[in-house]
Automatic annotation (TrEMBL):
Residue intervals passing through the bilayer: none
GO molecular function annotations of the record: mRNA 3'-UTR AU-rich region binding; NADPH binding; quinone reductase (NADPH) activity
UniProt key word Zinc: no
Stored InterPro entries: ADH-like_C, ADH-like_N, ER, GroES-like_sf, NAD(P)-bd_dom_sf, QOR-like
This protein's GO CC annotations: cytosol
Keyword Oxidoreductase assigned: yes
SMART domains, per database record: PKS_ER
The protein's name in its UniProt record: Quinone oxidoreductase
Domain spans labelled Enoyl reductase (ER): 13-323
Record key words, sorted: NADP, Oxidoreductase
Length: 325
């Protein structure tokens, strides 16, 4: 047995329910490897799970994404060895920890050019951008896109990668201080969401409705996002930062221009190990080409996890937050 400091919650609630505890970690089972984490990624979904909006059986660990070093391999694991650098993003919750056992087929081997911190910054959010730009809609040169929360973790990656693919990206942010970040990621223009007329402001800036609207804000924005999509365009509701999106009457999609509306998730897109590896290779290629870059918005110790959650909910974060165990 090895000891590991982990974040555990025994009840759903505010950031104060996140407790640091010491737990024994058994050796890796058949098909698993044991990883010592070097960097852990924070994702907005961690908040939904802490609050019980996406309920988990309690008590539970939290966190989907981390990078580190293989310390032990279980029986039957041939493709990974002790000392190797790896990362993961869809191995179930428990990444907020010093050490962890993970199924070997959920791991990405890291090339030397990608640091642990970069991997923990980019893997979950980059794999999200990967399916949104390559599968939900295959972005083509000349596409006009509207990306909400363009200064955020996924938002910056979406913007930078879509721009590299030849799209023109308009972004929104929740405060003027985030405008420069969104512009630096590649937005042609940035719309302030505090303006109640933000859809009109988007249309004035773009002169044309969007082929695709990427909306992870949900409750506060989705209905107005429908006004920003071109006829036969696509509205992608992939998150609920402000709360769950309202139900949409299919007839509304007809009235707004025969629109398509989808609510996808990164996990089914990567459930098959071969597809997961292919998608990860696509992301690593985009990183190598400079189409996807890490924007580390801050580093926190595992002990300060409650403060990370507080700052995210108060919209104080830009880029991606790393947790160092
Ligand atoms: N479906 C999927 O596959 C998938 C995968 C990964 C992430 N996601 C979703 O993508 C979104 C972005 O994730 P992320 O980890 O990169 O987070 P993030 O964008 O860094 O943070 C969320 C952003 O949402 C915006 N926001 C708008 N209304 C808000 C409110 N009432 N409270 C808090 N934030 C609000 C804020 O940006 P502004 O202040 O600029 O508006 C905030 O920075 C999240 O909704 C997440 O759940 C979905």
């Amino acid at each position: 047995m090895t000891a590991s400091r982990i974040v555990e919650l025994a009840e759903f609630g505010g950031p104060e329910v996140l407790k640091i505890v010491q737990r024994d970690l058994p050796p890796p089972a058949t098909g698993e490897v044991q990883i010592r984490h070097k960097a852990i990624g924070f994702n907005f979904i961690d908040i939904y799970q802490r609050k019980g909006i996406y309920p988990l059986p309690l008590p539970t660990g939290l966190g989907f994404e981390a990078a580190g070093v293989v310390e032990a391999v279980g029986q039957g694991v041939l493709e990974h060895a002790v000392g190797e650098r790896v990362a993961y993003m869809n191995a179930g919750v428990g990444a907020y920890s010093e050490r962890r056992n993970v199924a070997a087929d959920k791991l990405v081997r890291l090339p030397e050019s990608v640091s642990d911190e970069t991997a923990a910054t980019l893997l979950f959010k980059g794999m999200t951008a990967q399916y949104l730009l390559r599968r939900t809609h295959r972005v083509e040169p000349g596409d006009v896109l509207l990306v909400h929360s363009a200064a955020g973790g996924v938002g910056q990656i979406l913007t930078r990668w879509a721009t590299a693919l030849g799209a023109t990206v308009f972004g929104t942010t929740g405060s003027p201080e985030k405008r420069e970040t969104a512009l630096a990621a590649g937005c042609k223009e940035v719309i302030d969401l505090n303006d109640p007329q933000w859809p009109e402001a988007f249309l004035a800036a773009s002169g044309i409705k969007a082929r695709v609207v990427y909306d992870a804000i949900g409750k506060d924005t989705l209905l107005r996002s429908l006004d920003c999509a071109a006829p036969f365009g696509l509205v992608v509701n992939y998150g609920a930062s402000s709360g769950k999106a309202p139900a949409v009457d299919p007839e509304l999609l007809n009235k707004k221009g025969c629109l398509f509306l989808t609510r996808p998730s990164v996990f089914p897109h990567n459930a098959n190990p071969a597809t997961f590896r292919a998608n990860a290779a696509d992301l690593l290629d985009a990183i190598a080409r400079g189409h996807v870059k890490a924007d580390i918005g801050g580093r926190f110790e595992l002990n300060d996890i409650a403060e990370v959650h507080r700052a995210a909910e108060q919209r104080r974060l830009k880029g991606t937050i790393l947790i160092i165990p």
